[in-house]
Amino acid sequence: MKMTTNLRQNNRKIWAIVPAAGSGRRFSKTELKQYQVIQNQTVLAHTIARLNDLPLAGYVLAVGEQDQYAQTLPLKNKHLSHFCLGGAERVDSVLNALRYLEQFAQADDLVFVHDAARPCVTQQCLENLVDTAINLNSSAILAIPVRDTLKFVENQQDINKTVSRDQLWQAQTPQISTFSKLKTAIEIALENNIVITDEASALEYINEPVKVVMGRSDNIKITYPDDLELAKLILQSQQ
Fold this sequence. Notes:
The protein is of the alpha/beta class. The protein is built from seven helices and eleven strands.
């Protein structure tokens, strides 16, 4: 694999961070979406299995304080797994995981962050993302062009105007950068009370270029209960 060769030549490693401490209230008030079962595996186990298609040095799951379940799962390459305490928001969980990784990762190592509830990302997308980061020496994210007509709505349900979609992309994960760039970007953004919705938004704040890598529409994030049924169909079709 060319990607693996490039990593060895540059003495770099790839680490994965999976923030999994959120409550997921839009999915359920009582059940966590990452622990729903598809094909006899939890959503989280599917997600971790996909990430381990890459030659990871290790992966860090940032979990909730009361979560005693994640560490009991039969995750792929369990010997590469690490766990840390998540935070109040997703960005806090990512930063906690980065601070945990300080004891292992080098400044120029690649770190990507992936949603726990995105179990359908393909190996080809993962490889394209890492290859872009290596070959262009840049941070990068998976994303797809916006397809539908967009409306700007105000006063609850009144359409103000139609928004041009020509330059709009829908961000996905994983999102990748170097360890030092990502950690610095998040810390600076939080110090300045910037709202961080994904890793790219923190990198954008410090004027770090971020490349868009074409993703796939089936790389869905399970957010609502009906998304779970869609994920089941996608995983079945990908087999």
